What we know:
Elements: E1 5-7, E2 17-19, H1 22-31, E3 39-43, E4 48-57, E5 62-72, E6 80-85, H2 89-102, E7 106-111, H3 122-139, E8 146-147, E9 151-152, H4 153-157, E10 163-172, E11 185-188, H5 197-205, E12 209-211, H6 220-235
Helix pairs in contact: 2-3, 2-6
Amino acid sequence: MSKARIYLPDAEINESITIESKETLHKIKDVLSLKKSEKVYVFNGSGKEFVYEIGDISREQLLLINRSANRQENEIKMKIVLAIPLIQEQRLEYILEKATELGVDTFQPFICERSIRENPSLARLERWKRVVLEATRQSERLWTPEIKDILNFDELIQKDYKTKICAYIEGSYIKDIKIGDKENILLVVGPVGDFSPQEIDKMKNRNFCFIKLAENILRVETASVFLTGLVKYLLN
């Protein structure tokens, strides 16, 4: 049976909790069919998870009682930042979801020559956060990845990362790449149509490593998930 796990900010995590969210009630009552005295796990997205018992459950609310600490994890030093260009909404959300499951710590959206160049609405940004939060819940992570403010390409490549890796069809295979600083890693994937030659030259001048992921041209979302999983596997 799927583990009943929900997110709440620290301010709402107390010895007992009353939940009235229809979505949460539906999941616990109708999807998981939980009853009184069964366990519900509550995480804060900042390294802590608690386990509660269901004290009472009705159509309108859920009462959680008997809190005890379940898991705690200090913020890890090794940070993987995935820089993704603005692309079609559905594909970008796929990247956010799957890269969260794989262990990305920070997402850095950016705009470049061949990306979508229109800044997303506040509603869209909130949607991104919900996608990442849900993936954090589902994958049982304790830390929710951060989504940074959007940068333009030149701002992105000037950021101070000691290890900077870009997926590029003309790059080297992973066996020829050495990952130096494992605590400060930037992964970059290009837009539909890839980076322009001028952008590639700029990254070369900023000491980026270029990894060839496949003989074939990959979609942005495929390259993002593949690169993330590959680097995460090597680091672990």
